[in-house]
Amino acid sequence: MKYVKLLFLLLPVTLNCTACTSGKSEANTSHAKMPKKSFTLYDYYSNDSELNRLTDSIFTSLTPAQRLSRMIITSAGELGKPQSTVASLVQKEAVGGVLFLKGKSQSHKTFIDSLEKLSTLPLFYSIDAEPSLIPRRMPDVSQSFKPAAEIADSLEAYQSGNSIGVLVNNLGFNWNYAPVIDLSTGNEAIKTRSFGSDQNDVITKAKAFVEGTRAAGVIDCIKHFPGHGLVSGDTHKKTVFIDGELKEVNTYKPLIEAGAISVMVAHITVENNAEYGTDGKPASCSRKIVTDLLRNELNFKGIIITDAMNMAAAVNEGESAPLTAAKAGNDMILMPPNEEKLLNEMLAAYNADEALQAQWDASVKRILKLAVCTGMFDPQSSKQK
After folding, report:
1. What is the residue extent of each domain of the chain?
2. Catalytic residue numbers, as ranges
3. Res. 69: pLDDT tops 70
4. What pTM, to 2 d.p., does this model score?
């Protein structure tokens, strides 16, 4: 996807805001310079000085509103927001990406292409293209994929991740919210979406799926932290509880150590756990789960994203849930009911709290670094890697 016009962020000039007719505050680009080399997803966890310098330069060039909007992901497709609403959010620079729900693949591609023409900042285009969900997400796709539960070994898992990655990348997507690594024993929300209930087998296949996804130039996402397999109920419909020990957390450790780029946090409530009980909140809104456990104890350095904030278990937390989730340590808030309201709430909190400002600045830098490694700021190529 083309990002030619977006390279204004990297030019060593300062824009004259008085010339803007949209009324938006433009980024100060005086600190940014063109990168000397290209980066890929394999560079994300590197400490490359040029990559870090470029990330910092882009960050400095953005206004506070432009920074914080990178943390907000809206939705499109038949079950998402109307295209006119999404287009307006993109034009207002109120979101950093779009999750595409059910719809025809070519319709998705056409809309992505139109958003690219509207956007002044790079966007992440994501989809839940799990092997088991593709027929529901893009029913017109003729290519068939085994459900995750039927994938026999790591080779098949790699091929599945890679084939799906190539498919969605060709449509314009750069992020696949897959694979599911819940230890499913028949949970109604997971079913055949998981590789199974044997932890070692799930880890082996998930690693291979992630590798195949990344080889296609697409960002991976392991989910649903801290585990949605060994529970009863579906967080899409109601509050679901983990009672006591977090039995599925150990599934994440090897995948984090292997370089998984993003983790999705579930709206699951933890009770009867002295250390990680969520006090009635969904895990996505709990600092104990997001920051203390995932970010600090498991030492996860990548992107933490919430599950969709329109799900019943999140909605039950009330109107403040998206802001609470951002404060809890999530880098990206997925499908908040009102994106502009959330952005304004975040701006107010950002300006009032120095500690929170530092936390969200770190989140934005993680996101911008990933954007660079996805090819969004690469002047040597007009095509996303």
Report:
1. 1-69+354-385, 72-353
2. 236, 307
3. yes
4. 0.89
